[in-house]
Amino acid sequence: MKLLGISRGAPWASVSLAWIGNCEIRLFEGSQPDKDNKTLFWLELFDHGAKLSIDTFSCNEIADAAVIFEDFIAQATDLNKASRSGDAEAQS
After folding, report:
1. CA nearest to 86, candidates 49, 55, 60
2. Are 72 and 13 in contact (CB under 8 A)?
3. Domain spans, the chain
């Protein structure tokens, strides 16, 4: 609902769904619809530590988004575990 309240096509048209360590899962309206014009929204896994997008997914169905959201949570959890273990090794 929050995404619907943002002006269509606005560059900030995204909503943060979850944070896991340095990773954020965002929901946003894509500026370029796919060729079938069926994309409802996009999900993105963004790593703020590395300042890059790790993964994105074009969502045509809410059910698809739920599965991808769970996958992004798993990816973010793994990335943060690897980051913490790398920090521990660097301090040794």
Report:
1. 49
2. no
3. 3-91
Q: What phi, psi does 68 have (nearest 5°)?
A: -65, -40
In sequence order, what are the residues at sequence separation of 6 or more whose Cβ sits closer than 8 angstroms to the Cβ of residue 60?
A: 38, 39, 40
Rounded to two decimals, what is the model's pTM?
Answer: 0.74
Residue among 63, 74, 88 at smallest CA distance from 20: 74
Question: Could you report the per-residue pLDDT of 71-90, keeping only the tens digit for each?
Answer: 999 999 999 888 777 665 55
**pLDDT of the residue at 83:** 78
- Residue 82 has, within 13 A of its CA and on its CB side, a CA count of 9
Which helix H or strand E contains 55, and what residues bound it? strand 52-59
Query: What is the token pair recorded at 16?
Result: 């943060």
